[in-house]
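ugh ok so i messed up the first submission bc i forgot one of the chains. this is the corrected input, ALL of the components this time, i swear. 234 residues overall. if the numbers dont match what u have on ur side tell me asap before i send this to the collaborators (the ones from the other lab, u know who)
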Amino acid sequence: QSALTQPASVSGSPGQSITISCTGTSSDVGGYNYVSWYQQHPGKAPKLMIYDVKNRPSGVSNRFSGSKSGSTASLIISGLQAEDEADYYCSSYTRSSTLVVFGTGTKVTVL
Amino acid sequence: QVQLVESGGGVVQPGGSLRLSCAPSGFTFSSYGMNWVRQAPGKGPEWVALIWFDGSNKYYADSVRGRFTISRDNSKSTLYLQMNSLRAEDTAVYYCARDRVGSSGFVGAFDIWGQGTMVTVSS
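and heres the new structure output, hopefully the right one now
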């Protein structure tokens, strides 16, 4: 099971919006609405930001939103803030014997 | 306060064994499926194993199947990962993580994570 494909880095200025893509196949992203997004700061555990493609857990800022088209999911961060600088990973449920596959990760830099 | 605390990591030689533990607090442990997820240095997370809320079903990543065993003791509120035949490529921070949906199924969305425990496989 190959990792989902994400851009290595994305950057933006404070207040701007950025989009992180996550590309899979019909066996994972394209086949299920079980895409999640995680934020990870250095030395910390990942934090769930989006689940089931577009839903936010309680306590997560509404500046974070998710969507999906075909086998590509997207995380949109609006009103970029310095605290958003972190690594972001997508994940998806998959029909393979390895039930969950993560993305390659995207480093977000706030300029 | 909802949290998970892992323990048991350390340095082990190739071919050796190690058992990790995860202690939850702040939620009803027996109502949730639990997972182990690892992250090698400088790499992204990798899902390792899942055990259903009642321990009735277990699933493993291809990379660890046959070498690792996930288990739980709901009476002691503890999750375990027994790791045998360890290899250098198993070196990683190991996290226990709660699946969001509880006893109603599994969707691979992990809403609570521990702080992680480091496992180093080296001679």
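quick check: The interface with chain A takes residues 44-47, 50, 59, 61-63, 65, 95, 100, 106-111, 113-116 of chain B (CB under 8 Å). that seems consistent at least. The CA atoms of residues 32 and 102 of chain B lie 4 Å apart.
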